[in-house]
Amino acid sequence: MDLPIDEIELLGRRVADPILGRRRAGVLLHITSLPGPACVGALGSNAYNFVDFLAAAGVSVWQMLPVNPTHGDGSPYQGISMHAGNPRLISLEPVLQAGWLDELPLEEGVLSDKGRSFALSLGWEGFKERASDEARSELEQFLAEQSGWLDDYALFQALRAEQGGAWWEWLPPLRDRDPLALAQARARLADQISFIRFEQYLFFSQWGRLKRYANERGVKLFGDVPIFVAHDSAEVWTHRSLFDLLPDGQLRVVAGVPPDYFSETGQRWGNPLYRWDMLEADGFAFWIERMRTQMMLFDLVRIDHFRGFEAYWEIPAVEQTAVNGRWVQAPGERLFAALYRAFPDLELVAEDLGIITPEVDALRRHYHLPGMKILQFAFSGDADNPYLPFNHTVDSVVYTGTHDNDTTLGWYRSLDDGLREYIDEYMGRSREAMPWPLIRCAFISCASLAVVPMQDLLGLGSECRMNTPGTTEGNWNWRFSWDQVESDLAERVRRRVVMFGRQVDL
C-alpha cells in the first residue's frame, strides 16, 4: 500500500514538513524562457513578475531546468560547471541600482551576450571603485564560503578564454594541472579570475533574493540535477581521476541511453562516465558537495536519469550512436544513503522515465522518492499503462509533458484521427479546447504534485517546443512574452487549483 508522503519515514527519520506532503500545483518554465531585454531570460524584474503570476494562480512550485553555465548549444544538461551559475542569467538591473553601472549598452534594443558581458565588466570596475563596505564584505564572505569549487572554476574559465578549445587540447602542463603551470596561470590571469568570481557573487546573491521573494509568497523552487557532467567542464578537469578517461583526458566511454520511444538509435549524450569506485572511496564527497550547492538554490530537486544510479548505459566513445552499448551496475543505494546522511531533510524527485526495471523501481521506493508520470505517454498500450491517471500513485509528480516533449497542443495535433478520438472520449469530450482537458487531467490525478509547462498554460503549438531529444539544433531558445498571458489566466488556473485540492495556504 502506498503511503502519503508526509507519513513516510526516510532512513529512520521524518521530514518535518515535506514540500510534497500535500497536494500542490507547479509550472515548468526555465529562467531563460522569461521575457526581457537580454537575449535570454534573467533574474531581474520579469522573474519576480513571474513569481507574482504563480502566486496569483495558486501555483506553489516553480520548476526549472539546470542553471549551470552552458556550452554553445545552450543545453542546460551539458554544463561547464556543476556548481557555478550561468552568467547569462545575471540581471543588470540590480547592478545599475547599486550604482556600479551607469547605463545599459543596448544593441538595437536587445542586450546581446557580448553587450551583457561588457556591462558586467563595467559593473566590476564600478564595484571596485564605489561598492559599500557591506557589499565588499558580502563578496569576501561568498568567495571564502565557495572557494572549494569557485577558485578552480574561475581559473578554468579564464584558461578556456586564453587557450581556446577544450581542456584536453590545452598545453600538457595546463591540461594535466601541473602545480607550477597553474600558479603561473593564476598570476597571469588574476584580473580575469577576479571578474569571473565577481560574476558568481552576482548570480548567487541575485538568486538568493529571488528565492526569498518566492518562498515568502508560498512558491517553492524546484531544480534539476543532471546525473552526468560535461566532458569539457571544470569538474572533469579538476577531478580527472573520478572519470573514466584515457591518459590524455580523451573519452574512453560515454553516457547515453539505448533505443527507446524518443529515438530508434538511442541517445549518445557524450558525457564522461564516473569511476564509481573512486567516488565511493571518498565517501561520495563529489556528490555531497554537488547537492550542497543545489540546496542553496532550490527547495526540492529532480534527479535526472535516475535509472543510471542503478545501472547506466556505457557506450564506447568510438561509436557514433548509442546502439552498441551495455548496462553497467552503479552503487545507487550506497550513494543515496550517503546523501541522506549528509542532508536529512533533502527532498528529491526521481526522473524514472525510459527503460525502468524492477531493480530501478526498488531503488526509488527504498528511498521513497516520488517518480514521474507523463500524460502524453498515457494513451498508447492498454489499461496497465503506468501513465494513465487511474494508475498514478500519491508518490508521483504528474506532467502534461516535460521539456523533452512536444507542447500538448502540438502533440495532440500530431496524433492520428483514431487516437485523437480515443483521447477525446477518455476526457469526456470536454467543451474546453486542448490543452485544457489534459491540464485538468493532471490536476485531478492523485499525484502529490501536478506540473504544467508554461507553453501549455498559454495554449502554444509545436513551434514553442523547448527541446527535441536526439537533436542539437534549434533547442532551448523558446521564450514567452507577457502579451501572450491573457488577463484572466491566473484566475482560471487558480479555480482549477482550488477545485482539485492543490491550493497551499501560507
From TrEMBL:
UniProt enzyme class: transferase
GO molecular function: 4-alpha-glucanotransferase activity
InterPro entries with a match to the protein in the record: GH (IPR017853), Glyco_hydro_77 (IPR003385)
Pfam family membership, one: Glyco_hydro_77
Keyword set, alphabetical order: Carbohydrate metabolism, Glycosyltransferase, Transferase
SUPFAM superfamilies: (Trans)glycosidases
Gene3D superfamilies reported for this sequence: Glycosidases
Reaction catalysis annotation: Transfers a segment of a (1->4)-alpha-D-glucan to a new position in an acceptor, which may be glucose or a (1->4)-alpha-D-glucan
Gene Ontology biological-process annotations: carbohydrate metabolic process
Entry superkingdom: Bacteria
Documented EC number(s): 2.4.1.25
Assigned protein family: Belongs to the disproportionating enzyme family.
Family matches, as NCBIfam families: malQ (TIGR00217), PRK14508.1-3 (NF011080)
PANTHER family cross-referenced by the UniProt entry: 4-ALPHA-GLUCANOTRANSFERASE DPE1, CHLOROPLASTIC/AMYLOPLASTIC, 4-ALPHA-GLUCANOTRANSFERASE DPE1, CHLOROPLASTIC_AMYLOPLASTIC
Protein name in UniProt: 4-alpha-glucanotransferase
Gene name tied to this protein: malQ
